[in-house]
Amino acid sequence: MARNVPQSGFRRVLWERPRDPSLVRTAESLSAREAPNRWLSAHRVPDGVKLDGDFGAIPIGAGASAREIPPMAFDSRRSDRFLVRATIPVPASGEIPATLDGGAIYSDAEIGTTLTCGSSRAAGTAADVRTRLDTGVLARNGLDGTGVAIAIVDVGISLARLSARLGTPPLLNADQSWSPPAIVSVPGMHRVGHGTMCAFDALIAAPKATLLDIPALTARAAGDHTAAGTVGAAIQAYWFLITRWVLDGPPAGHDALVVSNSWGIYHPSLDFPEGHPGRYVDNPNHPFRSFVRALTLAGIDVVFAGSNCGPECPAAPCLKRATGAIMGGNAYPEVLTLAACTVAGERLGYSAKGPSIAGMTPQKPDLTAYSHFLGSLSRSRFVPDGGTSAACAVAAGCVAALRTGAKPTATTAASMVQTLRATALQSGPAGWNAEFGYGVLRPVEAGRSLGLIP
């Protein structure tokens, strides 16, 4: 049975609601890290609809389209529309309505962390990655991530494991970190796994950056490292970052923020049916894009993994679908999307080829970064940091290193992407290609182009 056909007559969705006092108070409680369901229960909904109290209510301005929305529209006191998560009844046919009670319905698609196929031995080590990235040159020019935060949007970080691997505790700002309301573990004290791997890999090029622990993808069974989360969880996390970094301004001691996202949706069957206006995978107007745009327009860099559905070695959840495999937020034009290669510069067979799914930005991935090396040892002594996940984290660290000198007030997020594309080591003819994007990331060359390295 297809995953997008409900089996119980109900479906979990994201739902637009007009402003009312209960939604405003719910959003304020969520922002203050208090239990939001106290106020949400007062919001009236049609019979048969159940609201998710843990999700709360997220302000989305005048609506959830992906046009440029003023940052203050995400302020709960000014927004006239809110996004809630609801379980709604659907008919026996499984047809999901486009609207309910006057509010648009959007997909809360299942997503997962992007891991390698796992059968190949590691190719190189973290030391090899440092050599390939010329991190010594970056460090000698003061480009080490000082004053820059890297938000690891994943399943959580184990600071103890990072300290053991690095020999010294990395910087972590618990106050600027965020967890879903139902999560008990505190920032930096989550289970060792995919998020720890990504944090380690991001610190390769930016060892003095400050980590923000954003375990948005924590809806998983114990020991399951192919964790499934929701787009709704990502929206919650992004709204938190908007309130802290855009509405309030960067916190003291931080000049820039890079948001690393080593996750994505594996197959369209995990989403609404094709043609539904609230679908996620091929919909540039899904509300999640509004949150991504709000960050990037404020000078915050957003980095995404491409996909592990490459034709030679697709991950099992891809269901052998290897075309148009870069979907949803991973294919937004505002983000930097990464393919993966070995330290020898050879494309990894699980790294998805472009173009993206029809309807989204076709020329994805943007760039390629290193992966499949022994680094964090977050799964075992012999399992590499792999997938486009590791490539995404490595690239996020490179961006953080460059942001030590290239402040967002002078170099926009879009300009940073263009610089990284223009300075990449190309494979094949000039311009974009489906396997490597614009080429393999070269942070030192990007630094020279930005005037940060002589």
Protein described:
The protein has about 450 residues and is α/β, with parallel strands linked by helices. The protein has 2 domains: about 100 residues, no CATH class; about 350 residues, Peptidase S8/S53 domain (Rossmann fold). Helix content is about 25%, strand content about 15%. A 7-stranded parallel β-sheet has the order 9-10-8-12-14-15-16, with helices on both faces. Strands 1, 2, 3, 4, 5 and 6 form a 6-stranded antiparallel β-sheet that branches. It has a 3-stranded antiparallel β-sheet with strand order 11-7-13. Helix 6 runs parallel beside helix 9. The termini are far apart.
Secondary structure topology:
Layout: E1 10-18, H1 21-31, H2 37-40, E2 50-51, E3 58-59, E4 81-89, E5 99-100, E6 103-106, E7 110-113, H3 126-133, H4 135-140, E8 148-153, H5 159-166, E9 171-172, H6 194-202, E10 210-214, E11 228-230, H7 231-247, E12 256-261, E13 263-264, H8 287-297, E14 301-305, E15 336-341, E16 367-370, H9 387-403, H10 413-422, H11 443-449
Parallel strand pairs: 8-10, 8-12, 9-10, 12-14, 14-15, 15-16
Antiparallel strand pairs: 1-4, 1-6, 2-4, 3-4, 5-6, 7-11, 7-13
> What best-fitting shape do the alpha-carbon axes yield?
globular
The mean pLDDT is: 90
Radius of gyration, in Å, reads 21 Å
Write the H/E string, N to C: EHHEEEEEEHHEHEHEEHEEHEEEHHH
Structural class label: alpha/beta
Indicate the CATH architecture of the largest domain: 3-Layer(aba) Sandwich
Tally the helices. 11
Count of β-strands: 16
CATH superfamily of the largest domain: Peptidase S8/S53 domain
